[in-house]
Every structure is written in C-alpha cells, then in structure tokens.
TrEMBL record:
Species classification: Bacteria, Bacillati, Bacillota, Bacilli, Lactobacillales
Any one Gene Ontology BP term: heme biosynthetic process
Pfam families: Flavodoxin_5
SUPFAM superfamilies: Flavoproteins (SSF52218)
PANTHER family the UniProt entry points to: PROTOPORPHYRINOGEN IX DEHYDROGENASE [MENAQUINONE], PROTOPORPHYRINOGEN IX DEHYDROGENASE [QUINONE]
Transmembrane segments: none
Protein name: Flavodoxin
Boundaries of every Flavodoxin domain copy: 4-139
InterPro entries per UniProt: Flavodoxin_dom, Flavoprotein-like_sf, Protoporphyrinogen_IX_DH
Entry's Gene Ontology molecular function annotations: FMN binding; menaquinone-dependent protoporphyrinogen oxidase activity
Amino acid sequence: MKTLIAYAGKTGNTAKCARQLAIHLNNVTLVDLNAEQVNPADFEAIIIASPVYSHKFEPSVKNFIKTYLSILQDKPFAAFVTMVEYDTFNKVITREIPEALRNKAIAIENFGGEVNNLSPFGWHDKLIAKSMVKLESKKHPIEFLADAPQNFNEQLKKASWT
Ligand SMILES: Cc1cc2nc3c(=O)[nH]c(=O)nc-3n(C[C@H](O)[C@H](O)[C@H](O)COP(=O)(O)O)c2cc1C
C-alpha cells in the first residue's frame, strides 16, 4: 500500500522511530510536518507520529489531523507517539485524536522515548523536563519501548497493511 508516515518532533526521537518503522513497510513516504506540507489524499494509507510535549501533540501534527480529518477517516489509519509519562497515554490520545479517527485506527501505540537533548528548550521547559524525568524514572526506565514497534507492525500486518 502506498503509505504516508507523517511525523514531527523537536529532538529527533519521533523521526528515528518513523524511519525504523518505514523499513518494515513497502512503498512508504516519510514526511516531516515541521518541514514540509503533504496531502494525505495522495496516499492509500496513513500513519501519523508525534512526540508529546506538555501533554499535547506537536502543533504541526495536530493541524494535519484537523485539516485532513475527513480524508484520514476514509483510509487505513494508524498512529504512534513517543513520550515518557506513560500514565497519561490514554488521556493524551483521547484529547489529540478525534473519536471517529481513534475508533477506526488499526493501531495506536506508545513507543516510549528518551530525554537526552534539552538544547532546543528554554529554562522553564528544561526544569519541567528534568522533574518529569526524575519522577517517571521511579516508575520505568526512560527509554524507547523495545516491544512497541513490533507490536505496532503486527497490528498493521493483521490488517493486511504491507
Ligand atoms: C520540555 C519537555 C516536555 C515534555 N513533556 C512531556 C509530556 O507532557 N508528556 C510526556 O509523556 N512526555 C513529555 N516529554 C518527553 C517527550 O515526549 C519525549 O522525549 C519525546 O520522545 C520527544 O520526541 P522528539 O525527539 O521527536 O521531539 C517532554 C520532553 C521535554 C524535553
């Protein structure tokens, strides 16, 4: 299937996951929504990928969903996030992906995430990130979730997404 992976991010984690996922799919186009515009109408199936910052998707991903909602609803659709506050996954997904799209999604997964580059952020965000990492690292390692991409791929395969 002619697949679009539309992703964005600030420190490269989501881009890295998107590239790794692309290896397992045929006929795939990767588009960084912070750098380029793309129309999902030109593809047969869509995967969106976003990091979570302050409990929200990257604005360009949010805009993409909003702008093309009716097109996304008409095609095979899946999404993944990279994030570290695992407890908030459901809340973030419920808020950031409209119900109709969520209900038809083939897969929506958390790929985990790292926080190892704070240079793009101001002092306030740096403080928030450090305290978040301190708190979350008591619950789980701050790293990519090893099983998540495979899990995601298996769900795509079950839906005959190749
Ligand atoms: C300033 C800052 C705020 C963040 N806020 C959240 C958050 O609210 N929830 C969460 O789960 N992860 C949060 N994270 C972790 C990022 O989502 C995670 O590092 C993600 O993989 C970054 O993706 P990117 O490299 O593609 O930008 C935050 C990280 C930073 C640096």
